[in-house]
Amino acid sequence: MPGWPIPTDNRVSSRMARQRRVDTDPELQLRRILHRAGLRYRVNMAVPGRPRRRMDIGFPRVRVAVFVDGCFWHVCPEHASWPANNAEWWRAKLEGNEIRDRDTDEALATAGWRVVRVWEHEPASLAAARVVEMIARRDRPSA
Question: In terms of residue numbers, what domain contains 67?
Answer without folding.
Answer: 19-134
